[in-house]
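hi! just following up on the protien thing from before. the input was this:
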Amino acid sequence: MSIGTGASAAAAVDPARIERDLVRLVRTPSVTADEEVVQDVMAELMGEAGLVVERLAPDPAVARTDPDWPGEEMPRDSLPIVVGRTGTPGGKRILLVGHVDVVPLGDESAWSDPPFGGVVRDGSVYGRGACDMKGGVVAILEAFRALRDAGTELRGGEAWFVSVPSEEDGGQGMLAAIRAGCTGDMAVITEPTGLELITAHAGAIVFRLTVPGRAAHASKRREGVSALDKLMVLVRALEEDEWERNTGETDPLMTALGLPYPTIIGTIRGGEWASTVMDRVTVVGRYGVRLGDTWRDAEAELRRTIERAAAADPWLRDHPPTLEITGGRFSSARTNPDHELVIGLGDAADAVLGRRPVIAGAPYGADMRLLVNEGATPTVIFGPGDARVAHAANEHVPLAEVADCARVLAEWVVKEVG
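and the predicted 3d structure came back as:
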């Protein structure tokens, strides 16, 4: 086999193949905790791309005992991971990483097309997971196929394609892959960034807050204490805390986001009867993790905020609210913008697309923090699609962006390990 070049590999990217594979993946439902079938498809596609394929099946019960376990929001009994490898072991190892799980559909009546229909319209593929992040997964797949088609040998090291489950509800699939040895000298995750280059991201924790009150008949409401009223005391404290944490940020990558560390109440449940003063209310919300902090740092901040507010209220001081951390636990992460990974990927984009990607930060958590913090693998996020349509009805990704991402990845792989 002759040794190809990055340019020839980039030129071998096939848009028709991208469309075919992306439609197939979108039409394969893979809501978080139900990823077995889509990983079967991924193993097949990796094999067709000429990769050496390995299936990993860590026990979720064992994963939950890991001291750095990142939580979960969906019950599961499997963690299917697929790894494809090519190149020469013993040299540099680079990882291209994507997750195949998607969020639930939401209100199906809000969709113009079937959520798992994989409809192609106006140059984009529509469907749940098209943007987040099956478009990025197909970009990786096509980069490897282009390398194969161009006859490119990787003599300077290895390139691994790591396909993981369970990113949407915490990242235990990525952590399990790391524990199984999926680490390297550097990594790219192809989450949707509009082909911007994310070198830093915030994080988030999910919390459950239960606020007590005292029941009374509505006609004697002053004899009771409304749990809803007391919840509002805590909400006002959270709003003040959100303002202080965001206005106190100085990192330009974060301040450019406007509100890098949002706090929201996502669900609220309370009350049993219209004419009874509410004696208990429970809310579930999201609390941002500041750049440079772990999820445990954020939990400590959140607890201090709630405790201070409760201590200042006569009722809550004697009847304290209960705070629990549930669901995913996303720490923050950062890779230095001067790192060779950032420079090299920027050079590859410039060579293929004629422009360097914008370096940016992100207000959300991602598997990047696990690779950086637990896997000691410098990582960035670079992929096709607009994150604003992720998780939304009519989610979609432009096929041209998927192809551009594949070309950049092929160029980068050759420059790093070719």
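The chain has 13 helices and 16 strands.
Residues 12 and 146 are 5 Å apart (CA to CA).
cheers
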